[in-house]
Amino acid sequence: MVGGNPTLGWGTRARVTNMAGEEFEAAPDGEETAPRAMPETGLVLVVSALGVLGFLAGRWWMLLAPFFAVPAFYLGLDREWWGYGLGDGWQYAMFAVLTIAVLATAAGVALRRATSLERGLYRRRG
What we know:
This protein is mainly alpha-helical. It folds into 2 domains: 1-35, no CATH class; 39-117, no CATH class. The chain is 48% helix and 6% strand. It contains 3 helices and 2 strands. The protein has helices at residues 39-57, 66-78, 90-117, and strands spanning 14-17, 23-26. Helix 1 runs antiparallel to helix 2, helix 1 runs parallel beside helix 3 (90-117) and helix 2 (66-78) runs antiparallel to helix 3.
């Protein structure tokens, strides 16, 4: 398709589906642009990374990290740095993801501290 989409006008981009069913926009000169990654993949990576970082740090102050990482991810979605932007009800989804991220981080910290107590790395004070 050279020159654009004749239905939408010659200077517009057409929505095209590849063989895998992924949608992408075709450039006006007929070149394909890469399909965008799904934001769910990024959310899984962020939550998983927070759990691992919680385990590696082993400190309770790591519970603050989700309050920076999750809003930063949603800021990137809003600015369309990745994904397709924010949809309706995004704030409820962000609250749910933030809750899951805090729980994953807490689980990582608790697991580290539980396994380290046996070796005496964290001594109980009092």
